[in-house]
Amino acid sequence: MNQSASLVLVVDDDPATRLLAHEAVVEAGCAVVEANDGVSALACFTEQAADLVLLDVEMDGMDGFEVCRRLRELPGGKHVPILMVTGLDDVTSIQRAYEAGATDFVTKPIHWLILGHRVRYMLRARRSEAELRQSERRQRALLAAIPDMMFRVDRAGRCLDFTGPLEITPLASTDEIRGKPLAAFLPRRVVEPAMERITEVLTTGRPTSFECQLPLKRQPRAFEARLAVSGPDEVLTIVRDVTERNEAEARIRRLAYYDELTGLPNRQYLQEALYQAVRAAERNGGRLALLCIGLDRFQRINDTLGHAAGDFLLATVGDCIRNSLRGGDTVALERPDSAAATHVSRIGGDEFTILLTDLKQDQDAAGVARRIQEAISRPILLNNNEIVVTCSVGIALYPHDDTGVTSLLKNADTAMHHAKEEGAGGYRFYSQSMNATALERLRLEEQLRKAVEREEFFLHYQPQVEIATGRVVGVEALIRWHHPELGMVSPADFIPIAEESGLISPIGEWVLRTACRQNRAWQEAGLPPIHMSVNLSVRQFRDERLVDTVAAAIDEAGLAATRLQLEITESLLMEDVEQVITKLRALKAMGLALEVDDFGTGYSSLSYLKRFPLDTLKIDRSFVRELPGDTDDAAVSRAIIAMAHSLRLRVVAEGVETVEQLDFLRREGCDLIQGYLFSRPVPAEEVPALLAAPLLPAAAGMAAPTG
Ligand code: C2E
Ligand code: CA
Ligand code: CA
To answer: Model-level pTM?
Structure first.
């Protein structure tokens, strides 16, 4: 269609009328083609579809009605406006014209000026109509492309139209739905809210939505229905399957608020619950207690039995806490039946919390703490070992201690750490003085961090003496920290902090390099060759760069690898055995000696040691301390020495302070001793003198050597 000049086909067998019509149409801004009978009119239209046809009824040959009918059959003829020219007041003709498909009619005599207007109007109407048809086509395509269900409903809830999957209705076809009330094919629990919303949308004019459940392919699914006014008294409802979306949302919520291992709420969740609980308590003057539960020495169990066992233990403890708060156990609460009264979370590694609301009196929180401790301390079967774990509990109270959510959590945590320090398995209420200690620890960690760069560390060396010869055959390197304000800080105080914070890696590396260089320096100075023992913490051992770090330290110092011995702890040997063996073999392959430190304090049996490539066993100081008087310790020491020898391991006893201890160890065949009896750990400068004067007190009855 040419927009600028529409084409009008004038069909009349009277030349005069054609001429006048021509004039009028051109005047109206249109182009004209003329036909003087029906046949040529149809030919003309076939060749070029006109935008409007002015058609005389009375013509020779094919009359106007027939032409009209046929025009409608032609391509482009279906919607073309056909204006029929009839005789005045010829009612039958008018009737027949409409029946033949005419759009409108004019009567003779024709008022040509009005005809021009009429033509313009009809062309305009035709254009809008065409646009409307186009828009409808587009909308239908749009609707067909949307996977949602769509209902058009009237105020009474009758369905005017429907597209979408029919599986949700017992009706079989779209036609069946048309004209039916929603209640005919939707369950009542959906129809009721739907009707409410339809009324709402029609009243307010604003879109609204609701969610409902509907069976789709017999499976219950979640749907969201959105409603908007689509005409007077008519509402368009788009119904979308949101099952997957809802599931994804639920999953995200689970991930964000729950701990995967135990299925308990996490710290995030607790904080929100705590916030609400505090607000509620503020309003109604209630009391709250927050219990922070920390497993004692959990890291050790993790190290000893492996992470899988550790995870299992945590899950078990989680269940245990949950179960022990069920039903009658919550007697401390005013409403023991109320599910909201307790709230268990896991807020990190081995820490759990219990939030008690509606607390009658503060002391009742202690009752819950004791109950939990009792429940947790029942033996748990782990990797075929019966393990007994204990926990320490810290308790913070609202409104007693503090009002803030974060400080409640922090205070409970602080109290828990205090309980731990006082010995495992206890509970403590928070008190303000506790913060000072926590701060101190934090400060220490901060200063430890700086100590590495500030070179505040140095090493002392404690000789290991061969009992048979009385000679010093090696030294153990022991770290010292000279703190600018605190003075000397014991490694027993800062090594655990270094371990927890990860600072042990740079510190341990420094110890290794310094110790290796020192041993090399003594050799350069012409002293008798000795081995250097260096302590390795569990965390250091686990570091995947360990073998490289050790190799680098030896290389850098130019020390023979055989002059370096690593002290590892017994607990390490029980963790992920195959991996530990592989690592120990790699270290052995370099030529290093390996020693098990603090032996007898862990869970390992001597026969178990067979599997590891070890050289020396160090009997823990705790077994030496009461020797030879304590018969138990004597028996243990004796057994360790005998068993170690049967495994071809050398035995060192540490912490030997008295001649009596030495005598006992000598009698039992212990190979080496280390302890204050011979020497305390000393600075490097003092070591040469000890090597030059290798003297051990003789066994009772022998002459004591002088020097
Ligand atoms: P450890 O490896 O068991 O070291 C032996 C500890 O016993 C040392 O304490 C030593 O001074 C002390 N000792 C030696 N002989 C006697 C004695 O006859 N009687 C008594 N009562 N004690 C004696 P120190 O130097 O305070 O070290 C404590 C712990 O700190 C060490 O225990 C070790 O676990 C750790 N440590 C020390 N230096 C390092 C290090 O460089 N790296 C790592 N990872 N840990 C270290
Ligand atoms: Ca040691
Ligand atoms: Ca030791």
So the answer is: 0.50
